Recover the amino acids of this structure.
């Protein structure tokens, strides 16, 4: 299949593009490089062993998106592109709604006009809201506690409505738990712009000396060691989930399929810190701080539906996740290099 990967220069998109290519698909990247670096493209080319087609397009631009899809001959779209910082979404809700909803709407309009039948969407476990019991199942009600989360809930609804109107559409709503880790080569990984919001990139930056210490947000949760527990999964397992979902959309009669992508096993903040210390070979300075507003004690998946319907499981361990994150971070302490300004020589 020829597959358009939106946000393909980003963290999860880059790993997934490589796996699509390895599976024999033609993965084509569209990215506006607002939060990703152009230098990722050369690294992807090196890992893929060929030049990957890349388009620089803002997907909220309806006409530009239509032109891209019209000329592309795509069989499917995998839609990663979007803003994802919870705190920023509270400060700038309209940016989040217009960007995240706008890009999905223009992609769907262009796909409908040009007959692209498959859509795989990057959703999030955040759609289970604040009070969901664990493990979380796909049939739980959805809600959100911040604009970022609402954009995920709303985009899921937009996709369900689009599939009612066009029963030939096949949609996968993939609800990610906590993606971490990096490609085994250490040449691509997570490179958050600005101060990271998430635990693993913060730990990695402490380990490499970019920050003094990690703040543990609360050690008085009702969990075995008092720290929050999450369902961390390796980004390579997550990428494989997308390949499996795309395959499945080719055979299913179900118009919209929702799959949790997680391991089903919770790991505490202290357990992640310990695993990372083993991986990097030294202790990491931590300090216990108050709970972070909006955090829940525990979030982890019931991944049995994805296992049954996709034949997919996230098997890599927390130690592998930390080892691969450390390889990436230690080889690239400041993340990807900036391309010289104005250079788009690696864009095609
Ligand atoms: C966060 C977002 C969620 C989003 C997800 C993926 C919030 C409240 N939730 O989820 O909406 O879908 O990221 O981007 O922001 N922790 C620390 N110290 C830190 C950072 C985190 O102790 O400096 C702890 C947290 O309290 C939590 C765990 O580490 O227990 C994981 O945090 P994080 O990586 O931010 O993920 P989520 O809280 O699951």
């Amino acid at each position: 299949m020829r597959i358009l990967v939106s946000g393909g220069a980003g963290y999860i998109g880059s790993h997934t593009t490589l796996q699509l290519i390895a599976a024999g698909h033609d993965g084509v990247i569209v990215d506006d490089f607002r939060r990703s670096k152009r230098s990722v493209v050369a690294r992807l080319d090196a890992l893929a062993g060929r030049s990957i087609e890349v388009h620089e397009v803002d997907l909220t631009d309806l006409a530009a998106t239509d032109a891209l899809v019209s000329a592309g001959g795509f069989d499917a779209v995998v839609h990663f592109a979007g803003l994802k910082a919870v705190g920023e979404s509270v400060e700038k809700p309209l940016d989040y709604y217009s960007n995240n909803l706008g890009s999905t709407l223009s992609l769907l309009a262009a796909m409908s006009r040009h007959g692209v039948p498959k859509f795989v969407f990057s959703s999030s476990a955040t759609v289970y809201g604040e009070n969901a019991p664990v493990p979380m199942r796909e049939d739980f009600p959805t809600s959100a506690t911040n604009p970022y989360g609402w954009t995920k809930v709303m985009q899921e609804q937009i996709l369900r409505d689009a599939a009612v109107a066009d029963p030939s559409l096949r949609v996968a709503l993939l609800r990610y738990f906590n993606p971490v880790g990096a490609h085994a080569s250490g040449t691509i990984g997570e490179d958050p712009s600005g101060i990271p919001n998430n635990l693993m990139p913060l730990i990695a930056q402490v380990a490499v000396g970019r920050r003094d210490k990690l703040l543990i947000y609360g050690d008085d949760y009702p969990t075995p060691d008092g720290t929050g527990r999450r369902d961390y999964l390796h980004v390579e397992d997550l990428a494989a989930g997308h390949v499996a979902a795309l395959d499945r959309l080719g055979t299913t009669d179900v118009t919209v399929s929702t799959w949790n992508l997680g391991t089903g096993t919770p790991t505490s903040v202290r357990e992640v810190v310990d695993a990372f210390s083993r991986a990097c070979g030294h202790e990491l300075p931590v300090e216990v701080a108050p709970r972070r507003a909006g955090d829940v004690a525990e979030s982890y998946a019931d991944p049995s539906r994805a296992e049954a319907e996709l034949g997919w499981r996230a098997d890599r361990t927390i130690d592998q996740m930390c080892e691969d994150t450390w390889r990436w971070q230690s080889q690239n302490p400041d993340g990807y290099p900036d391309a010289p300004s104005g250079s788009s020589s690696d864009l095609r």
Notes: Residues 14 and 261 are 17 Å apart (CA to CA). Residues 93-114 form the longest helix (22 residues). Residues 2-331 form a domain with the Rossmann fold fold (CATH 3.40.50.720).
